[in-house]
Amino acid sequence: MYAIVKAGAKQQKVAVGDVIEIDLVSAKAGESVELPVVLLVDGEAVTSTGLDKASVSAEVLGGFKGPKIIIQKYKNKTGYKKRQGHRQKYTQVKVTAINA
């Protein structure tokens, strides 16, 4: 059994025991979070409607930063150049249960 969950602005495929990275949540390490289900697959049965009661329970393992991304702007012949960096913050969670 696996589920497609919505975590922040992204959707991810998860099964029980998977460790995934989601956008930053305000929960501390060791706490539990609930992720909303978009699609539920159990063998041959695929459920995409009536999932308002379904959820995925996950335990927060900790937070970390993603890789550094360099943003660089340049305009020819004007002397304009600008350099900027960014590191996205993520939370690592372990899926403990899929509640259908």
TrEMBL record:
Short name of any one Pfam family annotated for the protein: Ribosomal_L21p
Keyword annotations from UniProtKB, A to Z: Ribonucleoprotein, Ribosomal protein, RNA-binding, rRNA-binding
A Gene Ontology BP annotation from the UniProt entry: translation
Domain of life: Bacteria
SUPFAM superfamilies in the cross-refs: L21p-like
One Gene Ontology CC term in the entry: ribonucleoprotein complex
Alphabetical list of InterPro entries matching this protein: bL21-like (IPR028909), bL21-like_sf (IPR036164), Ribosomal_bL21 (IPR001787), Ribosomal_bL21_CS (IPR018258)
GO molecular function: rRNA binding; structural constituent of ribosome
Chain segments annotated as coiled-coil in the UniProt record: none
Known function: This protein binds to 23S rRNA in the presence of protein L20.
Family assignment from sequence similarity: Belongs to the bacterial ribosomal protein bL21 family.
Subunit-structure text: Part of the 50S ribosomal subunit. Contacts protein L20.
The name this protein goes by in its record: Large ribosomal subunit protein bL21
Organism: Nocardioides jejuensis
